[in-house]
Specification:
alpha/beta; Rossmann fold; six-stranded mixed β-sheet
Length: about 180
């Protein structure tokens, strides 16, 4: 059974998450990683997982364009959607804004987290990330916390969310394979 994971990655974080996702599948599944900035998916074959990074409050444009062009055609074959975002707690809001409701009704959603690492960035992206990091760290300093409260850490990729998402996808694919 073929699963095409369609994504785009501006700075490599989404690519890293997609590779982590693919690593959870055995050889019983044919997994194709499709970076839509470089490759074209085969829209007539298999099932799809679609996702990408949130940049400045919007889904990265290549993924947005792919969804806009293919939402109806892939409606019955999108079995999962995901987002990568360096702003924890915003994923649920973003998901409702960026994915077709028909996809969300039938497909699990993965919030893979994200990173705010300016050393990986250039230009305006680097400046904005430095400002956001400074704001998060300032808020952290302003919040009284006991020695065991680390709830305001800088954003990171969340491998546990990727693993749970992979398990949900495998379950759905196995059900499709068995005809249930």
């Amino acid at each position: 059974m073929t699963l095409q994971i369609v994504y785009a990655s501006r700075n490599g974080v989404t690519r890293e998450c997609v590779q982590m996702l693919a690593s959870h599948f055995s050889s019983n599944f044919e997994i194709r990683l499709i970076d839509i900035e470089k490759d074209e998916p085969d829209l007539d074959e298999g099932n799809f997982v679609v996702g990408g990074p949130i940049r400045y409050g919007k889904l990265y444009k290549p993924v947005r364009n792919f969804i806009k062009a293919n939402a109806k055609r892939l409606q019955d074959r999108v079995i999962g959607v995901f987002l990568c975002s360096g702003l924890p707690g915003m994923a649920q809001e973003y998901k409702r804004k960026v994915f077709p409701s028909a996809w969300l009704e039938r497909a699990p959603f993965g919030d893979f987290g994200g990173e705010l690492k300016p050393d990986k960035l250039k230009g305006m992206d680097k400046m904005v990330v430095k400002m956001v990091r400074a704001q998060i760290l300032q808020e952290e300093a302003d919040i009284p916390a006991d020695d065991n409260d680390f709830s305001r850490a800088l954003p990171e990729i969340v491998p546990e969310n990727i693993e749970r998402f992979a398990l949900a996808l495998k379950r759905d694919l196995l059900e499709k394979r068995s005809g249930n």
